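[User] Once you have settled down, look closely at the record that follows, and write a paragraph about the fold.
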Amino acid sequence: MIAGHAALLAEACGRPVRLFYDRAEDMAATTKRHPARVTHRTALDRQGRILGMEIDVLLDGGAYSTLSPVVLSRAVLHAAGPYACDNLRITGRVVKTNTPPNGAFRGFGVPQVAFALERHLDRVAAELGIDPVELRRTNLLADGGTTATGQSVADAGASRQALDAVVGRSKWAATKRAHAVWNRKNTGKRRGLGLACYFHGTGFTGNGEIQLASIAAVELLAGGFVRVRTSSTEIGQGTRTVFAQIVAETLGLPYERVETFDPDTALVPDSGPTVASRTVAVVGRIVADAARALDRALAAQAGRKPGATWTLREFERAAAAYLAAGGDPFFLARLRNTSQQVFDDERYLGDAYAAYAWAATVVDLEVDLASFEVTVRRVTSAQEIGRAIHPRLAEGQLEGGIAQALGWGLCEEVVMRGGRMANGQLTNYVLPTSIDTPPIDLVLLERLYPHGPFGAKGIGELPMDGGAPAAVNALADALAIDLDRIPATPERIALAWGAKAAPGRSA
């Protein structure tokens, strides 16, 4: 949207234009996450096995559609979660409202449907008298299981692996017992434990990546250096570092020999936008292909076999000889459908995503019964992301996403009045800070994806999906209340607690 405004101004004045918003302007004018209302009806047998699901997804698009169709498609494709279900009906709609347009935000519609599903499953577990862990374990997809679109996913069993990891690391059963004892002894506070299982498709939906056919390039420089050229933007997630690692590992060069280029559209090919957890899994794969093209060219020049390990001295000599002979220093690669992905865009059947990442999160929290302030004591999360190219950067992204998800679920609320955001400053829009971020016990699970660079999948969106439902499930466990709306602010928790303690009901 901002790019469109800048383009219109540039056309009007015939000069380059750069727009700067202050914080209040930014929060008031830019797109927000789509508010959503998700309705579930589920049929189960007495053992807790899901027989059928009917899910309705309604999104608030704001005044204009912008990216609402994209967000809706991803929402409906993830609405049934990582669970097996033979009988499934999912519908989705976007409505216009008198508010600023809503757009793509971290998670692309998946956090909304994941929250609804995981809260619903905890309700189902309570109704059936089944442990919420066992309900999920009974219904999670296994390797080769099929998603809502009929896509068979070879590594779907990673969902159970993630569940077992967090249940073990959080000491689920023992912690539940300890909470029960603690809650009986303490009248002013309550503790609870909550769980969420979730998954996220890597890259654009359906045939999006195939149709875009993104391009990346590497450039051979004098002295045996290599430069990466892509349109992917570094926004703190470590794109430059990881791309340099991919090229260095592909060519067998020291990391210091690889440079990265600023994503100036005049200087880099179109690798697509920096969205949808596609940077490493999709663009990184193309970067690796471009590096292999460079390797083949130098190998041919030097009369050796492509893919053989270079010593640094050998690479420098081959590079110098290649450039001296007038060889083209630019090596381009275009995305290829190596996984043979096939998706029917009309019927929403087939391979919705080339790969999925899988996760489970447990939240341990405490609620003050005087103020209804929530303190998250600990988060345990298992994230199956394929190979972590740079484990420390991967952990940073995942921990940041979990903290962001907790903020969305517990305190961040956009207040609209008269079609305008009424709390567009950090004084009245409450964000979690480092002080509010709990200890996070993170487990990296790595099932190598054969079509990603060295087995990597996407990780950017995944951690956003599970924190909110796990936290609200923990609140329900602590207080025996039913919350179906987020953020779960102290005011909403107090109202639910008061309704529970109303005449005729016991607290």
